[in-house]
Design goal:
73% of the residues lie in helices and 0% in strands. It is mainly α.
Length: 244
């Protein structure tokens, strides 16, 4: 997380998200100081959306660092969906979710400009296409959290969810170069099949990372950390003797 506040380029491209997540955790920590309750979290979501609009108008780098105006709608949408899942749906929560979705659509072009690598002579991805993808992802999240998909207990969605973090780690550093290499080596294959083949390879690699690294080493690491957190029996330790 250190390269973000220091203004340095991360060694791994996907690490740009860590500084964003760290600031989100700081905002949640500030909310915890005042205590968590349903009303306070709802009020916090509304205030955060309002602060995001103000930050976009003021163009203050310092305010942007605290408010995260480019990501406010995404974070608020996630919080609201969790509140719906935990406490049930209500008109107020649906209004907040709608405001968060509309807010994120307004900053979508900024997000695309920040992260889309556009070759010389080509235009940026269409805002409409990006808006459709964002809406579909948000709708799928709602279906999984509060919709008919919430009751599914199939095994493969659990495995797919477990692969998201390993896939996040390898998709940019390995997946994108692999897709570009396939396009150069096999031009007849075309961009979409090359991308699909690259995604399949990265999913296979993610499965290996999850099986061989996360499950095995994670279990051992969790056991050791849990053991170290237990209070030690000082009486069983030998007493210190003073030497002359």
């Amino acid at each position: 997380m250190a390269p973000g506040p220091l203004g340095l380029d991360p060694v791994d491209g996907v690490s740009w998200t860590l500084w964003v997540e760290a600031r989100f955790y700081l905002l949640m920590a500030a909310l915890l100081v005042f205590g968590l309750s349903y009303r306070r979290v709802v009020a916090f979501c509304g205030a955060w959306l309002l602060a995001g609009v103000i930050a976009l108008e003021l163009h203050s780098p310092l305010l942007d660092d605290f408010v995260l105006p480019r990501y406010t709608g995404l974070f608020v949408a996630g919080i609201v969906l969790y509140l719906m899942h935990r406490f049930g749906q209500s008109l107020l929560l649906w209004l907040l979710l709608g405001f968060a979705w509309c807010y994120q659509l307004t900053v979508l072009e900024l997000r695309v400009a920040d992260h889309a690598a556009v070759p010389p002579g080509e235009g940026r991805p269409s805002w409409a296409v990006c808006a459709v993808v964002l809406t579909l992802c948000l709708g799928l999240l709602a279906l999984a959290g509060i919709g008919p998909l919430a009751g599914l207990r199939w095994r493969w969605p659990v495995t797919a969810g477990a692969l998201t973090y390993p896939f996040y780690l390898v998709h940019q550093s390995l997946g994108i170069p692999l897709a570009k290499g396939l396009i150069r080596a096999f031009p007849r294959l075309g961009p979409l099949p090359s991308m699909a083949l690259s995604v399949i390879c990265m999913l296979g690699l993610s499965l290996l990372v999850h099986t061989l690294v996360e499950r095995r080493l994670g279990r051992r690491l969790r056991y050791r950390l849990t053991l170290d957190m237990r209070p030690r029996d000082l009486a069983a330790q030998p007493a210190l003797t003073r030497t002359r």
